[in-house]
Backbone:
């Protein structure tokens, strides 16, 4: 039995063959390929999402080594989108990978994501998150959003008709450029935990299965092992 026949056999106690086929035809965009995005794109590829658009204009720095799954010492200075493409092709050659080594802005983000079934927000800027919300609303696609700060993290899901980030951050004209992660830093295991929940929510949205965090905010804090779900609506 070859790789193709064996690849998903351990999925089938959790997913049906029909669901696996649905994932194979799905297209997900991952925006930001750092601590969250590197974990998200790898987990989606291993689960069998058939097409991944991987978006990030940045290159790896030495400070990324503490938490970014895609970053190795040899890849410092390498574009994150190229590293992500190489990693996904090495993990699952059946996945179609569209790397976008460019920074998203109001002029190009809609075109980057418009063909997707879902977009995963792995950004580190609050203003960029609102920009993504607007582009995803225009494209009529749902968003799975995650954020981390130190050993704290949050995940939410919103659809085009939802208020999304407005329910979390409030008025757009009073937003800080970045959240508290600029003071707390970010730890690898928190990033991968949040990335795993984002990957899980993405699969649930794509399959229309399970209790999705739509209009809810999962907040976690790992020093105290506190996990809480807030109803945003």
Residues:
């Amino acid at each position: 039995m070859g790789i193709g026949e064996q690849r998903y056999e351990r999925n089938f106690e959790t997913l049906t063959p029909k669901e696996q086929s649905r994932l194979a035809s799905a297209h997900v965009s991952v925006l930001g390929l750092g601590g969250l995005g590197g974990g998200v794109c790898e987990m989606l590829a291993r689960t069998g999402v058939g097409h991944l658009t991987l978006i990030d204009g940045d290159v790896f720095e030495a400070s990324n080594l503490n938490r970014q799954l895609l970053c190795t010492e040899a890849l410092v200075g390498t574009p994150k989108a190229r590293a992500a493409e190489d990693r996904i092709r090495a993990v699952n050659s059946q996945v179609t990978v569209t790397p976008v080594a460019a920074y998203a802005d109001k002029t190009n983000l809609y075109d980057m994501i418009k063909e997707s079934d879902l977009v995963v927000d792995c950004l580190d800027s609050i203003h960029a998150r609102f920009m993504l919300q607007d582009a995803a609303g225009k494209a009529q696609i749902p968003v799975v959003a995650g954020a981390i700060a130190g050993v704290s993290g949050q995940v939410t899901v919103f659809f085009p008709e939802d208020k999304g980030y407005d329910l979390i951050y409030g008025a757009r004209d009073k937003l800080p450029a970045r959240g508290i992660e600029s003071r707390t830093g970010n730890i690898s295991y928190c990033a991968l935990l949040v990335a795993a929940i984002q990957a899980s929510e993405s699969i649930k949205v794509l399959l229309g299965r399970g209790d999705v965090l739509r209009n809810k905010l999962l907040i976690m804090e790992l020093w105290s092992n506190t996990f809480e779900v807030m109803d945003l609506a």
Notes: The longest strand covers residues 143-149. The chain has a mean pLDDT of 93.
